[in-house]
Write a structure and sequence with these properties.
The structure is a single chain. The chain is an alpha+beta fold. The chain folds into four domains: 83 residues, Serine Threonine Protein Phosphatase 5, Tetratricopeptide repeat (Alpha Horseshoe); 122 residues, no CATH class; 86 residues, Roll (Pdz3 Domain); 193 residues, 2-enoyl-CoA Hydratase, Chain A, domain 1 (Alpha-Beta Complex). Strands 2, 3, 4, 5, 6 and 7 form a six-stranded antiparallel sheet that branches. Strands 8-9-10-13-14-17 form a six-stranded mixed sheet, with helices on both faces. Strands 1, 11, 12, 15 and 16 form a five-stranded antiparallel sheet that branches. The N terminus is likely disordered.
């Protein structure tokens, strides 16, 4: 996956108290939040950031949605992202191949974009961005992989002394302009070269750059040229289908199929399958995987699969783009239609139109819209979906520095074209982003009863910016900046980010969620 996809988010919800009775004694089961938190604390203390992050996230999703755990997740996420970056051979090669002067130009370009376009102007000043970068570089000096790659065997005492200098000198007088930040980055890189033996000044500068991004929020991130070449990497695209794959001995192999994913419900691939070609192109590494997935034919990706049971390549086909709308009528007698949205892309509103038309032809009298597990996608696609159900009124507003989102109100004027039957909406802790826009609009406009658990709380809009300051005669050497450009407010003006959508009826059990929806929609 891209680093952007791999960046795990801070959750920002506080659960509504559901009971007034005295709490029961804590019971630690294999998957209980209490045991997960115990494991997370042990892993965090040991510096095992990936394990700590996974456990904190699992505990959060299991119901421990507190500000304290959110802060723990934020801390672990940043450490984990940095550690993965240092282990990434692609990123390491990018650092070593980039001249210091080019990295400084890139640093200036990123800081200019952050300060002028980030959704939170006050958080993106040159001084704050530089200080956040210093924190990132300071942590890098404690990282075994980074030190082995760049510090040329500097003694521990020397490194400790340099880290004290960062704290006592460099942090005391942060630069106030991008120009000053660039000059300070150059001076710091030279000092690291002289005192620590750092040969690649770009190693210092790119830590400052990544820290400036990562310190702003959990979604703003710098992608190196391969990771951010303008398209989602092949691993990320496969993951969107629920397919987790890795290269083993040069062969792309399916490691597992995610439960409840498209690939689980449409078993064209299975664990252990070895993929030789995709769309007629040989797949041998991450680059060829990404390239091959850019060329679907007739709305499909064609895979050539080698299995343990056949010497011949067997074909497997996946739709492209991945359908995001699933429609059905579980019980025609009740007349309740069921639509599950799994994501939001450009075609989602049209897919929804077709699904609603089919259900209407079959005579439905009400609708359940299932947004559980929907991690979102394109914000504007979410707005277009909400318009299908709300004839008039505000859907959401946005705040940011970018002109297209600065104080903008998104409203519906679909009128009589809107779907007008009674509705219930199902949400859970994995409902995110554009899916939260839809759920909040339907709730605030009193268009549907919302049932389930408080949502994820990702109320921001991101945009990828292709960078060019380090390209020179070597094209595509700068990478991409994925930048948070707007904050989303609900129709009633409440912040969506960090708060999410609180359901009208709070219910943790998925089966009971659907039962409650049917109770509301089906006259008895």
């Amino acid at each position: 996956m891209t680093i952007a996809r791999a960046v795990l988010t801070i959750f920002a919800l506080s659960l509504v108290s559901l009971a007034t009775a005295a709490p029961n004694p804590i019971v630690r089961t294999a998957d209980s939040p209490e045991l997960l938190l115990d494991r997370a604390a042990v892993a965090e203390k040991a510096g095992e950031w990936d394990r700590a992050l996974e456990s904190y996230l699992r505990a959060y999703l299991a119901g421990r949605q507190t500000p304290e755990i959110r802060r723990k997740i934020a801390t672990c996420q940043r450490h984990s992202a940095q550690a993965r970056r240092h282990r990434d051979p692609v990123f390491r090669q990018h650092v070593l191949s980039l001249p210091t002067a080019d990295s400084l130009n890139l640093y200036s370009e990123v800081l200019e974009k952050l300060s002028s376009l980030h959704a939170d102007r006050d958080a993106a000043t040159a001084a704050k961005l530089f200080l956040s970068g210093l924190e990132e570089f300071d942590r890098a000096l404690a990282n075994r992989v980074f030190r082995g790659e760049h510090l040329a065997g500097a003694p521990d005492a020397t490194v400790a002394r340099f880290r004290r200098t960062i704290s006592e000198f460099w942090k005391s007088k942060p630069p106030t302009t991008v120009r000053e930040a660039r000059a300070a980055a150059l001076e710091l890189a030279r000092s690291a070269g002289t005192e620590l033996g750092v040969k690649a000044g770009s190693a210092v500068v790119l830590e400052l750059l990544c820290g400036a991004c990562n310190g702003l929020d959990e979604y703003t991130v710098y992608l190196s040229p391969l990771h951010g070449g303008g398209a989602t990497t092949g691993f990320a695209e496969l993951a969107s289908y629920g397919i987790v794959a890795t290269f083993r001995n040069g062969t792309l192999t399916v490691d597992r199929i995610a439960p409840e994913s498209w690939a689980a419900e449409n078993p064209v691939l299975k664990t252990g399958d070895r993929i030789g070609r995709i769309n007629g192109r040989r797949v041998t590494d991450a680059v060829t995987l990404t390239e091959s997935l850019r060329f679907p034919a007739d709305g499909e990706h064609e895979f050539d699969i080698a299995t343990d049971f056949s010497m011949m390549a067997l074909p497997a086909r996946l739709p492209s783009p991945l359908p995001t709308v699933q429609a059905s009528i579980p019980n025609m007698k009740d007349g309740v239609g069921f639509i599950k949205l799994t994501g939001f892309h450009e075609q989602t509103p049209l897919e929804l139109d077709a699904a609603l038309a089919r259900l209407k032809e079959q005579g439905i009298r009400s609708l359940v819209l299932d947004l559980r597990g929907n991690t979102g996608g394109q914000f504007l696609a979410g707005v277009r979906v909400a318009e299908r159900f709300i004839p008039a009124g505000i859907l959401a507003t946005t705040e940011g520095q970018a002109p297209e989102f600065a104080g903008r109100i998104f409203s519906s004027d679909s009128g009589m074209l809107a779907f007008d039957l009674p509705m219930a909406v199902l949400i859970d802790t994995r409902t995110m982003s554009a899916a939260e826009v839809v759920a909040s609009a339907l709730k605030d406009q009193q268009r549907a009863v919302v049932i389930g658990m408080p949502t994820f709380g990702k109320g921001v809009v991101q945009h990828p910016f292709k960078l060019g300051a380090a390209d020179g005669v070597h094209k595509f050497r700068s990478g991409t900046l994925v930048l948070t450009i707007a904050k989303i407010l609900t129709a009633r003006g409440a912040a969506l980010h960090g708060h999410g959508v609180i359901p009208d009826l709070v219910e943790a059990d998925p089966a009971r969620q659907l039962a409650l929806a049917l109770e509301r929609l089906v006259p008895r």
